[in-house]
Every structure is written in structure tokens, then in C-alpha cells.
Amino acid sequence: MKFEILTLFPEMFEGVLGNSILNKAQQRDLIDIETINIRDYATDKHKQADDYPYGGGAGMVMKPEPIFRAVDDLEIDEGIPVILLTPQGKTFNQQMAKDFAKRERLVLLCGHYEGIDQRVRDELVTHEVSIGDFVLTGGELPAMVLVDAISRMLPGVLGSDESYIEDSFYHGILDYPQYTRPQEFRDLEVPSILLSGDHGKIARWRRKEALKKTLLRRADLLEEIELSAEDKELLAEIKEELQKEG
Is 87 an annotated catalytic residue? Predict the structure, then answer.
């Protein structure tokens, strides 16, 4: 997959995209990440990419000309998503990551200042995406979040495809507790069922713990997924146990 990121601050991406799993994925040609400086497409001597808003108001607005030129230079085919990172967008979630991971190419446009000229949104942008109900200084950090979340959906990026399938939210609920060596640490022991070798019991325990965590922390998620008969049975057990506890 190819990510093309339009930004005023390409240097912000070096640390995040040049390390760990994303760096290895690039070295193995599983993903290709290109940052494009919008200022390079400004034609005035000061490389101005923003200006005062018509009608007055505080702050600056990103100009349309450099962005249009940058997108024109990319020669984007019809159907290629051009994603504007903005707090006004649809909230990013795991399903969106799965959907975007099916594409061969994504263009990410990082907003900044007080916003972006509406003509860019009307003519170029296909998706507006937010990473939460809060405001950041720009779209660079959200763009990094999208690249990371989408990349891990791609075959081979994590080494084992089972890794992302077992992630929190992949199946609509939170992940189960994880343990590793040592078996005992500061009088805290790994649950004995995980040492039993009984894969059926381990799978049931993990599902129950995942449902319990989701019920306690994000009960709203349970209303959005289709629960199996076993899930309903496990939830009944969990609720009964919680009532006994207090």
C-alpha cells in the first residue's frame, strides 16, 4: 500500500514512521510512505500556504492553490481516497481501518491553523476523518494514527496475521488479558488455566475475560455487535459473578 501525506510539516513524521514495525514494513516494501510538503507548491517567494479568512475572524486558513497543485501533481485516479484529517470528520474506528486497508493507495491531507479553504473540501476531499472529539494543532498526529492502524491490517506487516485479528476492537470488543514469563512475579501468578494446555478451555476463558472487560469499560460496544449464543451465556455468567462480588 502507498500512503501519500500532504503536510506543512513533513519533518514531524520522521520519528514515528522511521521506527519499529512501520520502518520494517517499509524496508520489506509492504508499505510505501511519502510525505509531500504543501509549501513546495506555493508560487510566491515566501512560500505562503495560509492567509486571513474572508469575512474576518481569528487565525489563518490554508490556501487552496498549493493543495490543488500538490494533488494535481499526484495524478490521483478516480476512486482513490483523499482523506482530510479534521475534528469535523467521522470518528476513526477499527472498521474504517479495515476498509481503508483494502485500498492500494491513500492520500492523507493534514489540516492546520483554523482550517482549510472550503473549495478543497468540496472538490478534492473524499473522506473527512477525526480521531476523537478534541482539537489538535494540526492533522499530522491523526495522519500518523491512521497510517499505523491501517498498516497493521496489511498481510505480513505484523509477522503473524493472527496478531491483528486478536487486537482490541477487531471483533468489536476489547482484548482479553495477556501474560508472559515469569509465571510468578511479586506474588502475582499467571491464571492456572493458561498453563493447562487445554486450548478449548483457554479460548473460552479468553472470550469471557474479553466480554467482561468490554462490559465494565465499554458496554456500548456490546450493543453494536452480534453476540453468539455462547457469548450470551458467558455474559450471563459474568453478570451473575459481578452481582455476587458486590
Answer: yes
Report domain extents, the chain: 2-161, 184-245
Q: Which of 114, 148, 166, 175 is catalytic?
A: 114
167 is catalytic: yes
- CATH code linked to domain 2-161: 3.40.1280.10
If you search the block for the grid coordinates 470528520, which residue do you land on? 89
Marked catalytic residue, from 10, 64, 66, 87: 87
> Rounded to two decimals, what is the model's pTM?
0.85
The span from the CA of 164 to the CA of 152, in Å, is 7
CATH number of 184-245: 3.90.180.10, 3.40.50.720, 1.10.1270.20, 3.40.50.1980?
A: 1.10.1270.20
Q: Note the pLDDT tens digit of each residue in 122-141.
A: 999 999 999 999 999 999 99
